[in-house]
């Protein structure tokens, strides 16, 4: 049986998943990714480990499934920067992760120079350390000899998808897709190409840049697996595709390390006035597709903090039981700004806070407040999104995915805050599924994007139970907590 192999390289782990042509999951393999924090606010990954782990997972998953791979799809943590030697294929430095805030001061300087309106007009993004451009600039300025070597064409830049594609094809293909390119601050989302104006503004040689292609198509042959890499999309655009949210107005929220709410806006970009991002959606065929996005930097990562930092739980699966051991958070508000605050606030200088602590506060209250913080941040993004699109485009349901969406307590609280149904599909591996289906389309294994809608199946709908007055009071308390953090 021919099958689709998805390489899902995330912030906290590298995974490989094998699906059949109908989207049925056949096998999965996973390895946790080591996080490096050399200084406060700095986050790095070992690009060599990323490749080694991803390859090992792919081999393991294919062996488990016992199938022949027809096509390979790649989905990845976006914005993370890898810089490597074209000759040796070796990275010059650890990858700078999307959460890394080391370029915050440089971003502030660029804003003071008045560059942000032009950047936003071309890219749909704001100037923030989150995105790739200032990280790449930092590497060129701080790795000895890097800038001169880049100018001579000896080095290659890529987000993680490009790095994996380079390795899979033995260095024959240096490319990315539109969804990943649109997260760099260097890509003109209207023209569909790298912007020479922005490359000059960030002082980045064009010789470093990968070729940009649609998300579905033949990128190159992965020799070891005897199959083409035929689909690439950044993790959030892949999840939107895997959720079959292919029409304007459809939206999903992914609960991963961060939370990412995307609404498809069709063939035209929608400029936000509410602190959201305009980005490219996964592209099948020649026509560009766009989405509105709100990015929450710390989602499921707060559960990792409960486990590794606070040591309140032994494993992530224990958090729901601990949180449910108390009826509520006891008046506690947790603003998990470990890496600043993303949409709609965009404050990289913000730091986390626990507000409302009393002598009666327990680890269970902190766990419950931590879970609720994920829903509060997502609700703030959805509120901004509804304000952007107006009454006619307001969301009437939210499709969810990602590891934390398996938490019933979190999903019910999310529905309560939003006042709309939260829909969890049978297959919550929608990021990997989206990459697999894009590969299937690119290799001609899947017939058409329209066939994808029939693959989506509902597992559970969480209906709102909380009164709108109570939800409003809860959201007002959250807003007050955020204001306190921002004023600190």
Give the structure's gist in a few sentences.
By secondary structure, the protein is α+β, with helices and mostly antiparallel strands. The protein has helices at 47-65, 104-112, 116-123, 132-142, 146-151, 160-168, 178-181, 196-201, 235-242, 301-308, 319-324, 363-389, 408-418, 430-442, 468-487; strands at 2-9, 13-19, 25-32, 44-45, 68-76, 82-85, 95-96, 155-158, 175-177, 187-188, 193-194, 211-213, 216-222, 227-234, 251-255, 259-266, 277-280, 290-296, 333-335, 353-355, 398-401, 422-425, 458-462. It has a domain at 2-234: ATPase, nucleotide binding domain (Nucleotidyltransferase, domain 5), CATH 3.30.420.
Describe the structure.
- With 488 residues, the chain is of the alpha+beta class.
- It has a domain at 2-234: Nucleotidyltransferase, domain 5 (2-Layer Sandwich).
- It is 34% helix and 23% strand.
- It contains 15 helices and 23 strands.
- The protein has helices at residues 47-65, 104-112, 116-123, 132-142, 146-151, 160-168, 178-181, 196-201, 235-242, 301-308, 319-324, 363-389, 408-418, 430-442, 468-487, and strands at residues 2-9, 13-19, 25-32, 44-45, 68-76, 82-85, 95-96, 155-158, 175-177, 187-188, 193-194, 211-213, 216-222, 227-234, 251-255, 259-266, 277-280, 290-296, 333-335, 353-355, 398-401, 422-425, 458-462.
- The strands form 7 sheets. A 7-stranded mixed β-sheet has the order 17-18-16-15-21-22-23. The chain has a 6-stranded mixed β-sheet with strand order 3-2-1-5-14-13, with helices on both faces. A two-stranded antiparallel sheet has the order 4-7.
- Strand 2 (13-19) and strand 3 form a beta hairpin.
- Helix 9 (235-242) crosses helix 14 and helix 12 packs across helix 13.
- The longest helix is centred in the C-terminal third of the chain and has 27 residues, at 363-389.
């Amino acid at each position: 049986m021919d099958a689709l192999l998805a390489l899902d390289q995330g912030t906290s782990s590298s995974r490989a998943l094998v699906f059949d042509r109908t989207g049925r999951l056949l096998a999965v393999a996973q390895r946790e990714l080591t996080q490096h924090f050399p200084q406060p606010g700095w986050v790095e990954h070992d690009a060599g480990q990323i490749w080694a782990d991803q390859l090992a997972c792919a081999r393991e998953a294919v062996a488990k499934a016992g199938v022949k791979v027809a096509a390979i799809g790649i989905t990845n943590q976006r914005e993370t920067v890898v810089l490597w030697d074209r000759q040796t294929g070796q990275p010059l430095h650890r990858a700078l992760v999307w959460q890394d805030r080391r370029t915050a001061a440089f971003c502030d300087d660029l804003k003071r120079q008045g560059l942000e309106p032009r950047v936003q007009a071309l890219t749909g993004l704001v100037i923030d350390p989150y995105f790739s451009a200032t990280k790449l600039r930092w590497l060129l300025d701080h790795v000895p000899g890097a800038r001169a070597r880049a100018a001579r064409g000896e080095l290659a830049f890529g987000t993680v998808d490009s790095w994996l594609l380079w390795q899979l094809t033995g260095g024959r293909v240096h490319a990315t897709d539109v969804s990943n390119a649109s997260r760099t601050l260097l890509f003109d989302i209207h023209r569909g190409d790298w912007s020479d104006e922005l490359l000059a503004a960030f002082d980045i040689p064009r010789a470093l840049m990968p070729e940009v292609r649609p998300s579905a198509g033949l990128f190159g042959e992965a020799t070891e697996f005897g199959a083409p890499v035929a689909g690439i999309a950044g993790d959030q655009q892949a999840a939107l595709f895997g959720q079959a949210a292919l029409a304007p107005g459809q939206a999903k929220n992914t609960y991963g390390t961060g939370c990412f709410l995307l609404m498809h806006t069709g063939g035209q970009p929608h400029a936000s006035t509410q602190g959201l991002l305009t980005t490219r959606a996964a592209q099948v065929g020649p026509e560009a597709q766009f989405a509105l996005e709100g990015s929450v930097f710390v989602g499921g990562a707060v559960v990792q903090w409960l486990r590794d930092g606070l040591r309140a739980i032994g494993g992530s699966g224990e958090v729901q039981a601990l949180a449910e051991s108390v009826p509520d958070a006891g008046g506690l508000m947790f603003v998990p700004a470990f890496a600043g605050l993303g949409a709609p606030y965009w404050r990289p200088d913000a730091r986390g806070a626990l507000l409302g602590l009393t002598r009666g506060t327990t680890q269970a209250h902190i766990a419950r407040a931590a879970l609720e913080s994920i829903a509060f941040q997502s609700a703030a993004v959805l509120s901004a999104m509804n304000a952007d699109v107006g009454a006619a485009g307001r969301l009437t349901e939210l499709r969810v995915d990602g590891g934390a969406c398996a938490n019933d307590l979190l999903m019910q609280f999310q529905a309560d805050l939003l006042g709309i149904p939260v829909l969890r599909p049978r297959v919550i591996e929608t990021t990997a599924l989206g990459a697999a289906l894009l590969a299937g389309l690119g290799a001609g294994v899947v017939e058409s994007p329209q066939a994808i809608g029939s693959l989506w199946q509902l597992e559970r709908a969480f209906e709102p139970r909380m009164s709108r007055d109570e939800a409003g009071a809860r959201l007002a308390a959250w807003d007050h907590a955020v204001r306190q953090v921002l004023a600190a």
